[in-house]
Amino acid sequence: xxxxxxxxxxxxxxxxxxxxxxxxxxxxxxxxxxxxxxxxxxxxxxxxxxxxxxxxxxxxxxxxxxxxxxxxxxxxxxxxxxxxxxxxxxxxxxxxxxxxxxxxxxxxxxxxxxxxxxx
Length: 119
Description:
The protein is mainly α. The protein folds into 2 domains: 2-57; 72-118, Arc Repressor Mutant, subunit A (Orthogonal Bundle). Helices cover 65% and strands 0% of the residues. The chain is built from 5 helices and no strands. It has helices at residues 2-6, 26-57, 72-83, 88-95, 99-118. Helix 4 crosses helix 5.
C-alpha cells in the first residue's frame, strides 16, 4: 500500500469514513494498518510453524510427496549410460527427460544398493 501512496494513489472507503488516505488522518491510518497487518502476519506465521512442528513430532512427512515411480527398465538404461561415462546432461538429452529425473533415478539406485548391502 505504501508503494501506491508513493505513486500518488489514495484510498477512500465509501462505507467507512475512517479508511480515507486523502485526509489529514492519512498517517495515523497507514501506521495503524501497517501495525495491524504485521501483527496478523506474526500470529498466522506462529500458527503455521506450530502446526508444522506438531506434525513433524507426530511423524508426518511435510512437503510435496516425491512423484518418482521407479521404472526399472529406464533406471537400468540410465545406469548403463552413466557407467559408459555419459554425463547426466547427455543422458537426459538422449532419453528426453530432465536432468533432475536422471539424478532422482541415480539416487534411487544408490538407495537400493545401500539397502542390499545392509541386509
